[in-house]
Amino acid sequence: MSDLVLVAVTLVRDTLPNVHRFVEGNLGAGIDHLVVVLDGPAADVEAHLEGHPQVTTIVADDRWWGGERVATLNGRQRVVANLVRAAAADAGLVDWLFFVDGDEIALVDRQVLADVPADFDAVRLRPLEAVAGGGDLFKRLLTRPELRRLKRLGLVEKANNARYFHGHVSGKVGVRPAADVRLGVHAAELPNGEKVPAYEHPALRHLHHESPTLSEFDRKWTALAASGPPPGMRERRAEILQAFIALTAEPDPARRDVVVRELYDVHVAEDVAGLEAAGVLERIDVRALPPTSTPLGARRRTALEAAIHGQEARPRAEFLPLRPGTAPPA
């Protein structure tokens, strides 16, 4: 087994059960240490994570931002991801750093990561999306012939993965922290925002629990509607977000529930039995994966956390892509 050190960072505002799933899932799937940045105070989550030997918790409240809180969710994600990336580079003990959302679990093969060619400073994790109402069943990205077959069966409206998946199809990335390559939300970038090539391999994937149930659909989109200025989204997802923003003004809870159910039925609910019969799903139980992660140990964890605290003194804007024509900080 490779002796690489793998760390993942996330910015999360979620329920305690979901955060527990995120932590245990990622550690069970091969990540050695997690940096969980809470997008605001969450006493129950803080208490649950306190003392966990493989989790560093940061509360990104108003004091942490110091008057520099970024309005957009994507911007806040970039800041926390690259603050931790800079810290990992300073500490010099992390081989690969991944940015994943709170509803995602990185599935990585350590030996594949050890064998990534030296001229690649980034890797891509391809998504597997949870099937709505399907438990441990996940959708993988399909080939054009597979998509056309699903369309003929009436299981997908259009023969493309962007309509087959409810969430993103571009996946997530990991970077070598020592390189001057930054973590974007879905891509690795140079300091000026230019995308850099990412190594790909079938054994580098991640699970995305994108609205797997009605209640999670409601929770996710309600949180997104309150997260700041709307991010750029595909047409269907933008339609859902605008509907949830409009629902913030709905005074009748019963009426709101009806609208949410309608949105879920139209945009998310799918034929689980039909997809399974078509042979395009994978059943993945992360609890059954063989353990491969190794805790950092007290000395290395202390070094990483000290480096993070050192980076927290920097202006938050330094962790965002540079504006065109702007020189990098000295």
From TrEMBL:
Residues 308-330 are annotated as: Disordered. This is Glycosyltransferase family 2 protein. It comes from Nocardioides piscis.
